[in-house]
Design goal:
Strand order of the largest sheet: 9-8-10-11-7-12-13
Structural class: alpha/beta
Radius of gyration: 21 Å
Distance between the termini: 61 Å
Number of domains: 2
Helix content: 25-40%
Number of strands: 13
CATH topology of the largest domain: Rossmann fold
CATH architecture of the largest domain: 3-Layer(aba) Sandwich
Shape: globular
Number of helices: 14
């Protein structure tokens, strides 16, 4: 093993040892690690050009590549999602560590009963949303991991890159990586309809073509599970609709109002001790919700979430209040991320007087 290859293995070992979420590599700087939401620099030598030559080669990227997404497996079997990039003429990379063990929904702090009911649907669209680094891919894996032990389904995944690798149990998995097994998300999704799937997991809806094909898949009897980048549940619906050109949005909303099963939005927040806590809100598409989506009544959707059955729909406000109450996050942090700090204060007062369950 060359010195540069050994450097990379050492970095991967350190990430696993410290349970780092990411390794941040910049040419002529020491490696940095994101640990429990904080960026930390360990005592290491700056990374030189030879290291990045080796990294580009290991990732099968052309030496002249400006941006390149791929995956990497360390010598000890730890998987990483890799982005290679350039900055100010130098090279850099971000390696996202992927747990080889598929976690349970309960361990992650997800609303397991809600997601399990959604996952058993035979058709429709499930949206998982949140900012970059909020754990959307892990949530997708937890849902599919649970389904694998519960139902006989053929699950086709289209990912960029493949992160969690599933072993067939009751379900059969066909995992396809963009750029290796299929040229694009849209093409992989279109082709998947001919592959006899029951469930299609699409890493991300990125354009009108993939969104239209996802709608078509749901309408023809498939369950589609996918992600969007958005701040909350209602914003997820708007973000998906805005993917389409203005003249197609009314028709897209009409289909979404019929095919949406539910949307889960999530955020990862640093705990005061160690690790991260998951805050999430979710909305099940039932009753008046469908009509509000079709008519683009987003303000009404937001208001409805505050009044809906907490077993099927819940807001970030109540999630944050519960995390504060259980000591998983500080009240100061919750106030800083809440849409309405005043409403959060009222919810916390309600918790202390045992009225938090009322809406």
């Amino acid at each position: 093993m060359t010195d540069t290859a050994q450097q990379l293995e050492t970095l991967c070992d350190l990430a696993e040892q410290h349970q780092a979420a990411d390794i941040l590599l910049h040419e002529n700087y020491p490696a940095r690690f994101r640990i429990a939401g904080r960026i930390e620099t360990l005592e290491m030598e700056p990374l030189r050009a030879e290291f990045f030559d080796s990294l580009w080669d290991v990732c099968n990227a052309p030496r002249a590549a400006l941006d390149h997404d791929t995956s990497f497996v360390s010598g000890k079997g730890v998987r990483f999602r890799v982005n290679l990039l350039r900055f100010l003429g130098a090279r850099a990379s971000v390696l996202r560590r992927i747990s080889t063990e598929i976690p349970s929904m309960e361990v992650l702090g997800l609303p397991a009963e809600v997601l399990q009911a959604w996952a058993l649907r035979r058709s429709g669209i499930i949206l998982i949303s949140g900012p970059t680094g909020s754990g959307k891919s892990t949530t997708l894996a937890a849902i599919l991991g649970w389904l694998n032990g519960q139902a006989a389904r053929h699950v086709v995944t289209i990912e960029d890159p493949v992160e969690f690798v599933f072993k067939d149990n009751l379900s059969v998995f066909t995992q396809r990586e963009v750029g290796i097994d299929t040229p694009t998300f849209a093409e992989g999704l279109r082709r998947s309809l001919r592959q006899n799937p029951d469930v299609i997991m699409l890493g991300e809806v990125r354009d009108p073509v993939s969104a239209n094909t996802a709608f078509q898949a749901a309408e023809t009897g498939h369950l589609v599970i996918t992600t969007v980048h958005s701040a909350n549940a209602v914003d997820s619906i708007e973000r998906l609709n805005l993917i389409f050109p203005p003249n197609e949005r009314d028709a897209a909303r009409s289909i979404l109002s019929e095919q949406l099963v539910g949307v889960l939005a999530q955020k990862l927040l640093p705990r005061p001790d160690v690790g991260m806590a998951l805050a999430c809100e979710y909305m099940t598409n039932e009753g008046a919700v469908s009509r509000m989506i079709e008519e683009n009544r987003l303000a009404d959707l937001t208001e409805n979430m505050l009044r809906a059955d907490p077993l099927r729909t819940r807001t970030f406000l109540h999630s944050l209040a519960e995390l504060v109450r259980s000591g998983k996050i500080t009240e100061e942090l919750a106030q800083s991320v809440a849409n309405s700090p005043q409403e959060l204060s009222r919810a916390l007062r309600g918790i202390s007087s045992n009225t938090s369950g009322r809406r």
